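Morning, I've got a small favour to ask if you have a moment. I owe you a coffee for this, so here goes:

…
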Amino acid sequence: MTLSVIVTCLVQTLVLSGVLSMSQGQGTAKIYGRITDLFGYPIQGASLQVFSCETQPNRGTKSPAETKAIQTTLSDKEGNYEVSGLSWGEYRITVSYRGFAQAEVGSVYLGKGADRLLDLGLKVGQIVDLPTMEISGTVSQTGAALPDATVTAVSAFNPQVIQQTRTNKKGYYRIDLNTPGQYLVYASKPGFAVEVQSMVSGAQKQTDFILTPLRVHQSPSRLNGY
């Protein structure tokens, strides 16, 4: 093989490697979704930032100070946003808008070429003291009180806004919410089917639940194949 042929082959190999590395570095994954308040109304102009969570050499740990901003975008009039051209890996997402508290999703993992839907709800910033809303009621089974049942109130648009409590001996519970919005309220107890109700803060306070016992025709051990 002549020297000129060897040099040509080396040049072609280097060029091909460069093209492949460029195509891999650009990335084809994306994150998209909608930004709203906790009532579900879209927020236009909210700033969404994407940070790459890169493990530092010889440390093996990550902290917010060690992450690097990758992209920034703004939501449109419908609250929609899209961040594309991302490589596979782990990311941190922050969303901010004037008058609202910043929302953060600490760990979002993207596979190669994956599309990740991520809707985010912002809660009103604690600029002034907002009136506390009380959700209260009873959890029962066909008229009989159910003590020690779990009642959970979670925002319909931001699962990080969540509160829980347990019923007392008379089946009574109470949850105080200081963030207005739409909520899903769950009542649960082992051996009973979960019941959920939706509510808008300020529009409803008394929320009673009647749980139905689960009817399992086979024991859990037989369902697992034992």
